[in-house]
Amino acid sequence: MPKIGDIQLPDFPLLLAPMEDVSDPPFRALCKENGADVVYTEFISSEGLIRDAAKSTMKLDIYEAERPVGIQIFGANLDSMLQSVEIVERTKPDIIDINFGCPVKKVVSRGAGAGILKDIDLMVSLTAAMVKHTDLPITVKTRLGWDDDSIKIVEVAERLQDVGIKAISIHGRTRAQMYKGNADWKPIAAVKNNPRMHIPVFGNGDVNTPERALEMRDDYGLDGAMIGRASIGYPWFFREVKHFFETGEHMAKPTMQERVEVARRHLEMSIAWKGETLGVFETRRHYTNYFKGIPNFKEYRMKMVTSDDSKGVFDTFNEVLDKFGNHRFDYR
Predict the structure, then answer these.
(1) pLDDT tens-digit profile of 203-229?
(2) How do residues 268-307 score in pLDDT, each as one tens digit?
(3) One domain for residues 207 and 286
(4) Quick check: pTM over 0.70?
(5) How far apart are CA 243 and CA 80, in angstroms?
(6) Which residues are annotated as a binding site for FMN?
(7) pLDDT in tens, 39-57
């Protein structure tokens, strides 16, 4: 069974990917309850932490029930990254993860995220310095390469391991691909099959059904799956994957009452954590998936995503239960 440093994980763990404006404490709590083995925070700017920017420091909030939890930081300036490690240590996470994979232009243009894939030597030296600067296990999330002509992930992963990282998660796309096309897991398997590799190698990208997770485990031989978009507004995904692993059968989809109850709790926790206005606004992105594929639902979804206060959303939840009862829909 894989370990991250001294953290023992189950066989083929499921990890919640760090996702901007998604992987906040309320959402992480729901995913944890539903079977996520390791959760990661939203990615946090090292420069923002040093400036004590409110949005960056708020992302450091972690709770005991989440453990093991990793805080993910990004940046390309050595001094800033080392200072941010010291700030992150004060919140006592279990893991510090370095983002070398974010493809967004505003991050890449600063040489951070996937931007550092253009300078592998810098990527390795920065990682080595961070490993030496903390006793917490350092992990890395990255992509296959900058583009199809620069995929050297087997070499890159080995070099990162050699300077002390404790696990690596690899998204099966290049930066040039962004999120288009299909994730290619073959290069990730090549990393795992490198006889010199001894740290866990987790796969990421297009793990959107239990069958795909099983394929990643059995056909590609990876140590675990990092799950992102499939879990947005659908924390049950982790439970469904584990059920499929154990039984070979699909779990029944959540009933309408279960969907409403989790959406309600999500909103309540978001308001408690970030206040009424932000809590209402930032939970909207999840409603489409909480109620995805349900017929004749557009009217209610529109109310949920346009209500400016929580009362409007809670009232809509009650309307939904009155309309649909506790029907179980065989939809994602």
Answers:
(1) 999 999 999 999 999 999 999 999 999
(2) 999 999 999 999 999 998 998 999 888 889 999 999 999 9
(3) no
(4) yes
(5) 43
(6) 72, 141, 171, 228-229
(7) 999 999 999 998 887 778 8
Q: Is 31 a catalytic residue?
A: no
Domain assignment present for 1? no
| Marked catalytic residue, from 102, 130, 230, 260 | 102
Tell whether 150 is covered by a domain.
Answer: yes
From 196, 227, 246, the end of a domain falls on 246
Orientation of helix 120-132 relative to helix 78-89, angle to 10°: 40
Mark the binding-site residues, compressed into ranges: 72, 141, 171, 228-229
Which CATH number is 293's domain given? 1.10.1200.80
Inter-residue contact 80 to 128 (CB < 8 Å): no
The CB-based long-range contact list for 280-285 (8 Å cut-off, 24+ gap) reads 280/307, 280/308, 280/309, 280/310, 280/313, 282/21, 282/24, 283/26, 283/313, 285/21, 285/22, 285/232, 285/233
Q: pLDDT tens digit string along 101-156?
A: 888 888 888 888 888 999 999 999 999 999 999 999 999 999 999 998 889 999 99
Residue type at position 3: K
Same-domain pairing of 129 and 260? no
- Does residue 329 lie in a domain region? no
The domain that holds 184 is classified in CATH as 3.20.20.70
User: Is 332 domain-assigned?
Assistant: no
Q: Which domain holds residue 302?
A: 256-324
Same-domain check for residues 152 and 277: no
Same domain, 205 and 172: yes
